[in-house]
Write a structure and sequence with these properties.
Blueprint (H helix, E strand, L loop, with lengths): L14 E3 L2 E6 L2 E6 L3 H19 L8 E5 L15 E5 L4 E7 L4 H18 L3 E7 L10 E2 L4 E2 L2 E4 L5 H13 L6 H9 L9 H12 L5 H18 L2 H11 L3 H44 L4 H8 L3 H9 L1
Parallel strand pairs: 6-7, 7-10
Antiparallel strand pairs: 1-2, 2-3, 4-5, 5-6, 8-9
Length: 317
């Protein structure tokens, strides 16, 4: 079963932020995390394994083995997660970061990720920073003396988004099968140089993805476009995209899955609360009986787990 506006009362004031999208469905708040590994793995890992290196012209004899989830607990929560880290079949890592602006401090942060990851696993790491078309000029490396950090920088302003979109549109109208590279083009189009605004382009990419006949490819393109655009657009822009995306079956299912999780969580909380209240009531009744028999407070505390204050309040009553 998936979300349908005819069946569910969806809060119109959905909240968006860098880590996720909050929805209220039938009074139940649910958040779809932009960094949800399960979502990313399900819809993009196969595509990335096969083609991400080729797409960005990265030469490697090793192939992507797995997308791994890494959180750095010694770093502030707001900066504690790398975008994408792939384990290669030669036991090395490929680390990808997607950026919509340039800040020298980001290079420091990425170098910390790599240092912590190397310290933990002892694997060699190649880092690639993909800058959106807004970024034209950067410092290509970080040099702080002994330490030199030299990631590979990929500039998306060099990608002709207008031409790529036109080519994709033609292919889909003619009923041609999309390749993995075509799908990655759809997903990354909003990052490229284009004549229209990013959020408008993201909406066009979602609408274009809806016309893909193959269900698996269609859902991969829709979800991945939402995931990536939500990372670097403003909250207002993300809201516009979600107004379009939430009407698709695949996003609807994700919303419903999160709502179902919240329902289970609320039921679990209610059961625990009821159990706790019943235990408290039983303890109070026992305390009353022991007080009636003039049992010492220390003994009542031992048998009921009530506090001395609670027992004295019962005694007063």
């Amino acid at each position: 079963m998936y979300y349908n506006e005819d069946k569910f009362d969806v809060g119109r004031k959905n909240k968006t932020h860098r880590m996720g999208i909050d929805w209220t469905v039938n009074g139940i708040e649910a958040k779809i995390s932009i960094h949800n590994k399960d979502i990313i793995s399900k819809y993009t890992s196969g595509l990335f394994k096969n083609s991400i290196l080729e797409y960005y012209g990265i030469k490697s004899t090793a192939r992507v083995k797995d997308l791994i989830n890494v959180e750095f607990h010694v770093i502030e929560v707001s900066e504690a997660r790398a975008d994408f880290i792939f384990l290669m079949d030669d036991n090395t890592y490929k680390h990808f970061e997607f950026q919509s602006s340039y800040n020298k401090k980001d290079l420091t942060r990425f170098s910390r990720y790599d240092s912590l990851l190397y310290d933990r696993d002892g694997r060699m790491i190649d880092t690639f920073i993909i800058y959106s078309s807004d970024v034209k000029k950067i410092n290509e490396s970080l040099n702080i003396g002994t330490l030199k950090y030299e990631p590979t920088n990929i500039m998306m302003y060099k990608f002709d988004g207008n031409a790529i979109y036109a080519d994709l549109e033609t292919k889909l109208k003619e009923g041609q099968e999309l390749t993995d590279i075509d799908m990655l083009n759809i997903i990354f189009l909003p990052l490229m140089k284009n004549s229209i605004l990013k959020d408008e382009l993201a909406v066009k990419c979602i609408e274009l993805s809806k016309t893909i006949e193959d269900k698996s490819k269609r859902e991969t393109c829709i979800v991945s476009t939402v995931v990536f655009t939500s990372k670097y657009l403003s909250e207002i822009e993300i809201s516009r995209i979600w107004e379009v995306a939430k009407m698709t079956d695949v996003i609807g299912r994700l919303i419903q899955q999160e709502v179902d999780k919240e329902v289970v969580k609320k039921i679990d909380i209610a059961v625990k609360k009821t159990k706790k209240e019943a235990e408290k009531k039983k303890a109070i009744n026992m305390a009353k009986k022991m007080l009636a028999k003039n049992k010492p407070i220390d003994e009542i505390i031992e048998f009921t787990d009530l506090t001395e204050k609670e027992i004295r309040e019962i005694k007063i009553k």
